[in-house]
Amino acid sequence: xxxxxxxxxxxxxxxxxxxxxxxxxxxxxxxxxxxxxxxxxxxxxxxxxxxxxxxxxxxxxxxxxxxxxxxxxxxxxxxxxxxxxxxxxxxxxxxxxxxxxxxxxxxxxxxxxxxxxxxxxxxxxxxxxxxxxxxxxxxxxxxxxxxxxxxxxxxxxxxxxxxxxxxxxxxxxxxxxxxxxxxxxxxxxxxxxxxxxxxxxxxxxxxxxxxxxxxxxxxxxxxxxxxxxxxxxxxxxxxxxxxxxxxxxxxxxxxxxxxxxxxxxxxxxxxxxxxxx
Length: 277
Hints:
The protein has helices spanning 2-9, 26-34, 48-57, 71-77, 93-97, 123-129, 132-143, 148-161, 167-178, 181-196, 198-212, 226-241, 257-262; strands at 16-19, 40-45, 64-68, 82-88, 213-223, 245-247, 253-254, 270-276.
């Protein structure tokens, strides 16, 4: 929803903007292009590959600072108020399309799922080392799957025969346990959230975003599942009740049919925007 993001952010040449989830640099490039490269922009991403790619993509723009790290931590170290902040949550297209990272069920890859490869815990560790109760909790809480206990038991039974090392191995175990492909998707989502501690980071990061906004500054959040969207919705309701922000999207904005045709992944996207009073 690039056009909607730019409409809400409304970039100005003298503005200061933060892209908390730089990814492929699409949102940042649109902001820089809109201001003819005159605005100042900070791009943050946990993934070094994303930083390297966007550095090359945006190299003609001089006023860009790149920071590798978790946005919830990075924001706490920044001092200057921002006129616009973007959070495009979840996994980037590049990460989904890179089989070696273990995010996608479409490729046979290692059970990794780390957005920052310097992190210690991987999906392999959870699947092969955690007990059945903790695996079930992760799948239930982060995947919202009613078959969590059954899936967890089958995972533990399978790993007792041999370690579960790849995405295809894990997918096969889940499908054999419940016979439902949607459970594979939910379990992969749950593991990714757990590995990267995503929900805690979103909540902490959104708090920092609100505190970093300049007067009349705007936050735009794009989420891809109910857990992310619920955090954004509740956080904005809290600050709205306190008189700190105006909510610009009473209901989340969804991708239109044309965008969904061009980018099927946008089907589940929900955009929320607020403005500092």
